[in-house]
């Protein structure tokens, strides 16, 4: 349970552009529960194995039938990392053996060809993302091979106008690699930093010098990447308000276009590697909340806009502009300024979103290779959304991306259909998180940091007691 002393309970409010975010520790304490991050609705915990390759192929046919055919987003999962970070909850394979990437890239190329055959040629790829793991575990030759094959199979934009991004571990690249990535067509990078404090880095087994990170950011700028993003994590061992303040000073001075500041969820029962973390060294919940309050304050004072769900961006960044003009989107890759694309996801564990379906690939590399060798798509589970799912997905997306639900625009009789949910919003309204009236639901500044709790009201799947709670805390 989070406990904050009276002096610190004073609500802290900061206004960024036209949008405010407010951290009220008392409210955070009361709404302190686990919940999905809503990169999809239904969450992946609702996927089932009754959905397989045949259902995925049928979804692709329906998606192609849209007129005009919609744009595509491509995701490639590269699962390898040469060392392990002790806080990690990602799907990764830790190995120093670079040869393990060879069969994987070969299989990925097979999947690329199978997937491309399902989608109309004229559909443009507006978004592309390589995630992991560590995508730069691949050699220069493998990266080139994969991107060239992608260009052969799909219609990539050649005007540098798409959002083509890659996650980078600064310890694994140099200026030459950054130049190669730009040449291959990437125009956005996100760097994992987490914390600049050497003591924290050592405790989580991710030692990367400040000079290394700043040098690679400078290289990205020289290569004219459109956007540089940095990931930080609060709640790691040995972090304190003072230590994280120093990290924030350095990050703000480096001026990335975007920042993601994630809450570390310590779940050693679920993620074995987290058992390497000394629990005694973890900051208390009170200290974590102070670190979060400080982060919001410092970033907004430095001119960053709170986009939502741990993300900040400079006012001129596309995400901030999309937040302002109501075109912000959310999918498995986080927030996006692009129109809703169908997402074709490749590699182990990757999750795609086609038509009214989500589909996930197998988790095991052996299984992945076998299915592809047999000429089969490696989809092993998924879900086709019902009309109710689609409606709830839209409400949740509107809450997260716009902080506003126009009831009449969604359906007639919103309050009758959602009578159960509207009743649950009443205490949230009383707590000042939102305003609910006949026309709309509007998220208020104290509700922005607790948006997951508001969305959970509309999540039908959370009512199913038989599903174990497998989510992180909202803050
Ligand atoms: S580099 Fe990323 S994916 Fe790999 S172990 Fe570290 S946090 Fe996990």
Ordered list of secondary-structure elements with their pairings:
Layout: E1 12-16, E2 19-23, H1 25-30, H2 53-64, E3 72-78, E4 80-81, E5 93-94, H3 101-116, E6 124-132, H4 140-153, E7 155-156, E8 163-168, H5 175-184, E9 188-194, H6 198-203, H7 210-222, E10 227-234, H8 241-254, E11 258-263, H9 285-301, E12 305-308, E13 311-313, H10 318-325, E14 329-331, E15 334-336, E16 342-346, E17 351-354, E18 357-361, H11 365-373, E19 379-384, H12 387-402, E20 404-406, H13 407-410, H14 414-417, H15 419-430, E21 434-436, E22 440-443, H16 445-448, H17 451-457
Parallel strand pairs: 3-6, 3-16, 4-5, 6-7, 6-8, 8-9, 9-10, 10-11
Antiparallel strand pairs: 1-2, 11-13, 12-13, 14-15, 17-18, 18-19, 20-22, 21-22
This protein binds iron/sulfur cluster (SF4).
What is the compact description of this entry?
The protein has 17 helices and 22 strands. It has 475 residues and is of the alpha/beta class.
Model description:
The chain has 475 residues and is an alpha/beta fold. The chain folds into 2 domains: 6-33 and 387-463, Arc Repressor Mutant, subunit A; 46-346, pyruvate-formate lyase- activating enzyme (Alpha-Beta Horseshoe). It is 36% helix and 21% strand. The protein has helices at residues 25-30, 53-64, 101-116, 140-153, 175-184, 198-203, 210-222, 241-254, 285-301, 318-325, 365-373, 387-402, 407-410, 414-417, 419-430, 445-448, 451-457; strands spanning 12-16, 19-23, 72-78, 80-81, 93-94, 124-132, 155-156, 163-168, 188-194, 227-234, 258-263, 305-308, 311-313, 329-331, 334-336, 342-346, 351-354, 357-361, 379-384, 404-406, 434-436, 440-443. The strands form 6 sheets. Strands 3, 6, 7, 8, 9, 10, 11, 12, 13 and 16 form a 10-stranded mixed β-sheet that branches. The protein has a 3-stranded antiparallel β-sheet with strand order 17-18-19. A 3-stranded antiparallel β-sheet has the order 20-22-21. Strand 14 and strand 15 form a beta hairpin. Helix 8 packs parallel to helix 9 and helix 12 (387-402) packs antiparallel against helix 17. The longest helix has 17 residues, at 285-301. Bound molecules: iron/sulfur cluster. Residues 81, 84-85, 88, 90, 92, 132-134, 169, 192 line the site of iron/sulfur cluster (SF4).
